[in-house]
Amino acid sequence: MWHRDISILTFLLLIASGHAQSDTLSRIDQRPQRIVSLNICTDQLVLQIADPKRVLSVTWLAKEPSESDVVALARSIPSNHGLAAEVIPLAPDLVVAGTVTTPIATSMIKRAGIPILELPPISSIEDARRQIREIAGAVGEVERGNELIGRLDRRLADISVLPERSRPTAIVFSPNGFTAGPGTLVDDVIQRSGFANLAAGRSFGAYHHVPLEVLLSEPPDVLIIESAEESKPSLASQILGHRALLRLSERIRVVIIPSRLWSCPGFGLAEAATILDATANELRRSRQHE
Length: 290
What we know:
This protein is an alpha/beta fold.
């Protein structure tokens, strides 16, 4: 019954606002007080930049430890599943969403005349800075956005910069066998951490399945396992279940990066880079003693 009432209300709101301005973003208040987020990446930035008391709803993923860095902040905030029927009755004064995750919902929200900020997927740390600034400006917290960027940049500044010719090689291997190539956020983090991304030199494209033969015939110095889980002693052997990969992992270094650290703009990018930087330094020191 509740869901039917919400659907009817949504329908009536859409009819009433059918001639709303297409550029609803221009109506954003200087400091919106009723913010809704429809994307896990915008969830995290909104909660880190704006006062959580001003946030009406975030996605259910914000409360999942494997996906989110803001579980504690999100715990007391109602969840949504990216549906317009969940958002419009809340009468938000700002909705923040991704351009590709909820297109039907965002279209209906625009037709309802609700201000909305849509952000595209990012492919670099510079893109991350830009999106932090965009969200900070939209929620009226420019200074807090600058503080988050400052924290990110200070941590990144501590990372060693190695000459191209002396960089060890690395490649990401996710549980589904895909890797991240050039033009991806993951590739940018890998390269800024002192590694040469093996996938970038093989014309794999942005995201591509890694043939097992490639890893075996041209093994990297470091195999980066991307996982939704936190680092556990048994995790590498679970993912590297193939005998050939397991043998390979005995000859090269293996490092686990939780996927939540470098899936979205934010301080997690610096945490991922720090893990990789430490691995690069260990590798360099071990080579010096050979």
